[in-house]
Amino acid sequence: MTHQDRSATATTPRRAVVRWLLLACVAALAILADQASKAYVVRHLGLHESWAPVSALEQVFRFTHVRNTGAAFGLFPQGGAVFLIIAVIVSAVIIYYYQQVPSGGWLIRLALGLQLGGALGNVIDRVRLGYVVDFLDVWRWPVFNVADSCIVIGVGLLMLLMLREERRERRDAAANDETSESSALDQRGEGASCR
Question: Is residue 134 annotated as a catalytic residue, yes or no?
Fold first, then answer.
């Protein structure tokens, strides 16, 4: 084993630890922000009570304390236990998929960390309370929370990264086609000149 092989092997576990720390830190920050904001709302607002931090924007944005037994944004209110199971499965899938992300995929890792933190933030509520505390009341959108926001931001970031990768692959394929065509034309031209 050469010195280079040994140094590559030595840094691999360190990089793996850094990657897992990124997931853990992003998820932990999302959970902390989610749980702290929910605790603040529960402490300061009664159930169904609203507060507008900026009175001029009250029709567009306010905090409204609600309990959600359904999915994100209050969808399917009677499916609490089902959504708890789904959230646990999704969390396991995120952790599994996280292992498959190439070493340079930091934005993908960030997106997965946000999704995991959001899913676990709502799981904590379902296990502890039997429902999810929602409070972000934006215009005509169903009331949601920080965990829901983390999930949506993570999914949106992942979609943008996938679209960017798809465009890059198309551009590379088009460039390869052009190179192949010009190479074929050059070969034909050389063959004609040899005659």
Answer: yes
